[in-house]
Every structure is written in C-alpha cells, then in structure tokens.
Design brief:
By secondary structure, this protein is mostly beta strands. It has one helix at 103-106; strands at 4-7, 10-13, 18-24, 33-39, 46-51, 58-60, 68-73, 78-83, 92-99, 115-116, 120-125. The chain is built from 1 helix and 11 strands. The strands form 2 sheets. Strands 2, 4, 5, 6, 9, 10 and 11 form a 7-stranded mixed beta sheet that branches. A 4-stranded antiparallel beta sheet has the order 1-3-8-7, with no helix packed on it. The protein starts with a strand and ends with a strand.
Length: 126
C-alpha cells in the first residue's frame, strides 16, 4: 500500500516555473515507478511524466518534453516535477501516481496506475 500527498501547486504567470512535490508513504518506495498525470477542466486526464523505481529511466509526454523534469529521492520517499516555461495550457490538476510496473506508464493508452494522490492545482495565467 502506498499513500501519496502532493504539494507545490499554485498560480504562476506564463513563462514561470513551479516544482511539484509528492511525498510517499511505505518502506518499499523504490519498487514503485512513479508518474504524474494531469486533468484540465473539461478535458480528459492525460499522462505527463514517469520515472522508474531507481530513477534511471524517465519518460515524458511530447507536450512537456524539454520543459518538465521528473526526479525522485528514494531516501526521502519523494518525487518531484520541475516545471519550467509554463504555458496556460499546462493549467490542470496534477496527480502523483505510483505503480509497481513502469511499463504501465509507457504503453499505449492512458496509464491507470494503482495509487493516486489527491491532486494539486496548477494555474498558469497568460
């Protein structure tokens, strides 16, 4: 069982930066791949980024590649999403997720991870 709590969301102007933080419970944190998904108002949920259990492999949606960076600190049970050059279209609720199979994030279709946080709102003004 993994419990996830996100923080770091907020309001920022276009071109600005935010860092989302996800704190995870459990003593086997490194066995889980971690990912961020987001959902904008009136839109379907979409994948943002994922990282393997040991942090060696990362994967990004094309829409955020080069602007967002996912990382993790297994000693602290933390996952981060550094978001730079933010655009109004990045406005969404961002969810931290966990799954014991990294391939579930990189396969075709929307990932359906086993564990989800409550979400944190990111609003980018133009």
């Amino acid at each position: 069982q993994v419990q996830l709590v996100e923080s770091g969301g907020g309001l920022v102007q276009a071109g600005g930066s935010l860092r989302l933080i996800c704190a995870a419970s459990g003593r086997t944190f490194s066995r889980y791949a971690m990912g961020w998904l987001r959902q904008a108002p009136g839109k379907e949920r979409e994948f943002v980024a994922a990282i393997s259990g040991r942090g060696v492999i990362t994967y990004y949606a094309d829409s955020v590649k080069g602007r967002f960076t996912i990382s993790r600190d297994n000693a602290k049970n933390m996952v981060y999403l550094q978001m730079n050059s933010l655009k109004p279209e990045d406005t969404a609720v961002y969810y931290c997720t966990a799954d014991d199979n990294y391939n579930n994030y990189v396969g075709s279709g929307l990932p359906r991870p086993d564990y989800w946080g409550q979400g944190t709102q990111v609003t980018v003004s133009s």
